[in-house]
Amino acid sequence: MNQPATFTGRKKRSATRATVLLSDTIARIVITLGGLATIAAVLLVGVFLFVVALPLFRSPTVRFEQSIAWEPTGHSLLTSGLDDSGLIAWFCDANQITAIELKTGNKLLSRSTKIGGLQQASAICHLPNTLKSAIGFEDGSIRIGKLGLSTSYVPEAEIPLLARSLEINELTTFNNVIYLRLSNKIVQKIQLVSELEDYASTALTRPITNIDLAITNSGFCLAALDNEGNIRFEKSTFQNNLLSDENSIITIGTTIQTELVPSDLDFIRVSGLGDQLFVFTSSGAFKRFAMRDLDHPVLMEDRHLLRDNTSLTHVTRLFGETSFVIGDNSG
Known about the structure:
CATH class of one domain: Mainly Beta
Structural class: mainly beta
Shape: elongated
CATH topology of one domain: Methylamine Dehydrogenase, Chain H
Distance between the termini: 98 Å
CATH architecture of one domain: 7 Propeller
Helix content: 10-25%
Radius of gyration: 32 Å
Number of helices: 2
Strand order of the largest sheet: 5-6-7-10-9-8
CATH superfamily of one domain: YVTN repeat-like/Quinoprotein amine dehydrogenase
Number of strands: 20
């Protein structure tokens, strides 16, 4: 079939230019490779997520790392904790606060509780990974304070000569300060802290036997149990006066009498939001109260947690602060 004549009389070229064919081939190859790479990337992400999630479906294991030969004092232990590195532990009883090296059990620091005003403390709640603590005393008073190991980084020029030769993860004590080398360029200064703040509650008059503290978005919430079974529940809110730029604390609270709770109450806990109260007895009885209206606590749950012939020895909160791990005398 003859091609129609053009206006100029010249015939059109029917063959595709080589440059067009080349660019078309290159584009086809690039698109194909891009598609394959996208599919491979998605598959690799799926494999990665599967590998990360796989341990969640396995049974949990507990591994024993080591034991240390360390003799605690004869006084009852009130609370304990770790530093940020996990290499140093501290313990507080009614008489003194002691820091030890976990690897060897060697005593690093020791301080009398009289220095921080804790000599009459009968119960302490220390929040992990913070210095925040609630302290209950023999006279029934409750104080908020800082307790634990304070960590800061030391410039190279300020490191004592004794600490300059430390190897990584080695530590030493100088002038009641622990120096810990984390890397070739990083040295931490670790100090014992025990300070009481101005906040005080005096609603209870009997010795405090158990206490709990939760930090909320606007302040804190605490619950304290005395040796007669009375519970003091308080919510405190921080407020700032925009005119004077002064901070103040507004506290509301209630005392729950023994009629509402079991007679052999041993442990109390508050939720992370400060809207629930959990009470436990050594025999395993458990009750949960809603505390949105402090004047009228509402019983939300009542059950028994333990097997027969066992007793509750410890209660601690999990992440999220509404679930608990409990321990009994059977181990």
